[in-house]
Amino acid sequence: MDFPKFLLGDNTEYPTAIFVIHTEFPRFIINLENDEVEWLEEFDQHDEKELENETENLIREASEFYDREIARYEED
Question: So which domain of life are we looking at (predicted)?
Answer without folding.
Answer: Bacteria
